[in-house]
Amino acid sequence: MPRGTFITLEGLDGSGKTTQIKRLAAWLGRRGVEPVLLRQPGGTSIGDRIREILLDSRFRGLAPMTELALMFADRAQAIAEVIQPALDAGKIVVCDRFTDSTEAYQGGGRELGSKLVLEMHRLICGGLQPDLTLLLLPSFAASLARARRRNDRTEEETGKNEGRFETEEDAFHRRVWEKYREIAAREPERVILVQGDLTIEEVHEQIVESVSERLLSAAQSR
Prior knowledge:
By secondary structure, this protein is an alpha/beta fold. The protein has a single domain (5-220), classed as Rossmann fold (3-Layer(aba) Sandwich), CATH 3.40.50.300. The protein has helices spanning 17-29, 45-55, 64-88, 99-109, 114-125, 140-158, 170-186, 200-220, and strands spanning 5-10, 36-39, 92-96, 132-137, 191-195. It is globular.
């Protein structure tokens, strides 16, 4: 059976990834394709427990290297339990964040550097890379403000606080932003940059165009 297709969405919190993943899944569904959806951190029972530690603002004392190790522990479980089996079965996997996020947030934001993150990815993830990464980069100020408002609203509605990263200073998020742009420049064949303060529909149109092209290319190469 031909290998499936691995698609990731990346960007700062508040960039609109969740909305666009839902719209992409609906678009694929209308074409008779049921994608496997997951998020990182999380997506497995073990990963969801790790997510609680990584995102809860009560864990402010988490050391950067501990944070990095937990990110990859979550990712290793997701690959073994969800991603690789789905790809082996020929399915389309759509994942909210992957190693690009770790390179941006821990490599850039925490200033651990890209070299360490990429080496851990090679060792722990076997070098597994997405076939297509859609990087959503609306304006820095707009996405950060939206993320902080969303986390406040989520805590009020559910009692869960997943805003540990949003409590960081703007300089941290600026480093994340710049690292994302660095990744996009380094890997233009894989990473499609969707930037600017576009409407939800405009972003969706760019996403489905890129996904259509990548799926057609994959089909022709089989």
